[in-house]
Specification:
single chain; about 375 residues; alpha/beta; L-arginine/glycine Amidinotransferase, Chain A; four-stranded mixed beta sheet; three-stranded mixed beta sheet; about 25% strand
């Protein structure tokens, strides 16, 4: 299917990125196949994956990206054994380098029409594997291959920076409240040396692109993400919107933990934030695991903030830690209308990501049919 181009931006067409808790048409996942992402721990990963699909397939369609028909058969067999609702599991033959579709997949925007219906489209950003890995060429093609496989009339815009290059953006680097606020970190989006995404762009230029292509009006910049996150500062391990006015922020009381100073500073920034209209937000602490998590002497990004909000449920990573039950309780209080489900992520996090990193929501609505 050819890509339809437009010279206008999503904001000019009335689109904006909806909050994750708005109704989903489905979730995009990718079947785990890269053994190098979980050295020594790859065997249990497919069963963790199947359990995630089991829960999601009860509430929405799960689109699973597979590298081949054989891999799709293996995935389906595992999900069947796990008790997934296979009527809601849709394998798509789309090769990937890694499973982190939050970052490599399409980022959807939507708009409400006067008749009450919703239209959706997606923004196809560039992807460079967090400016860290060389094998990302399959991941870079995911949005357009997904577009073709779905046989919908999806549209993609191609924002460019001041050098005429595609803007790089990962879904895990941003979080929105669906009411105009976007939250991110300077460490990720403004970095020019360690893992640079758009080194030629300054903060004002980045904000301008995000405003035009995601329909946001206010920007909440935290300084850093958590230690152990190999993305260099993704927000989805650090702080998350749980409703339009409330953010949970990862926090640790352990002054010996190198995350303590980072998360304390982030909390202060969140408390001091005001929108352009002067509005503040409610801030709720979400504990980190009581003991920093290491495997093979490597610090891992174990964070309860990496939860995923689906239709009627919230999936929360757990780490065999005493703070598991505390984190689950806090999140349950914040989502009283949803079932909160803990997912064992002690093996999964060895790949430097968990539930939110591996999932990308498709908001409910019909594909956009432009009139211009």
């Amino acid at each position: 299917m050819p890509i339809t181009k437009t010279t206008l931006t999503p904001r000019q067409h009335g689109f904006a990125m909806p909050a994750e808790w708005t109704p989903h048409q489905g979730t995009i996942l990718a079947y785990p196949h890269n053994k190098n992402d979980w050295p020594g721990k790859f065997q249990p990963i497919k069963w963790v994956f199947a359990d995630i699909v089991r829960h999601l397939s009860q509430v929405e369609t799960v689109y699973v990206l597979c590298g081949s028909h054989k891999e799709a058969d293996v995935m389906t067999a595992a999900c069947r054994k796990a008790g997934a609702n296979l009527d809601k599991v849709s394998p798509l033959i789309i090769p990937t380098d890694r499973i982190w579709t939050r970052d490599s997949g399409p980022i959807f925007v939507s708009k409400n029409k006067p008749n009450g219906s919703t239209e959706t489209a997606f923004v196809d950003w560039q992807f460079n594997a967090w400016a860290k890995y060389d094998n990302y060429h399959s991941d870079r093609e995911v949005p357009q291959l997904f577009n073709r496989a779905m046989h919908h009339r999806w549209y993609t815009w191609k924002p460019v920076n001041d050098n005429g290059k595609r803007v790089i953006l990962e879904g895990g680097s941003i979080d929105v409240n669906g009411q105009g606020i976007l939250m991110t970190t300077c460490e990720c989006l403004l970095d020019k040396k360690t893992q640079p995404r758009n080194p030629s762009m300054d903060q004002a230029q980045i904000e301008s692109v995000l405003a035009d292509y995601l329909g946001v009006t206010d920007f909440l910049w935290l300084e850093k993400g958590i230690v152990g996150d190999d993305t260099h500062g993704h927000i989805d391990d650090t702080a998350r919107f749980v409703n339009a006015d409330t953010i949970v922020c990862a926090f640790t009381e352990n002054t010996q933990d190198e995350n303590h100073a980072i998360l304390t500073a982030n909390e202060q920034t969140l408390k001091q934030f005001r929108t352009h209209s002067g509005k503040s937000l409610d801030i709720v602490r979400l504990p980190m695991p009581s003991t920093p998590l290491y495997f093979d002497k490597v610090r891992l990004p174990a964070s309860y903030a990496n939860f995923y909000i689906a239709n009627g449920i919230v999936l929360v990573p757990t780490f065999n830690d005493p703070n598991d039950r505390i984190a689950l309780g806090i999140i349950a209080e914040l989502f009283p209308q949803r079932k909160v489900i803990g997912i064992h992520a002690l093996d999964l996090v060895w790949g430097f990501g968990t539930l939110h990193c591996m999932s990308q929501q498709i908001p409910e609505g019909s594909p956009w049919q432009p009139q211009d």
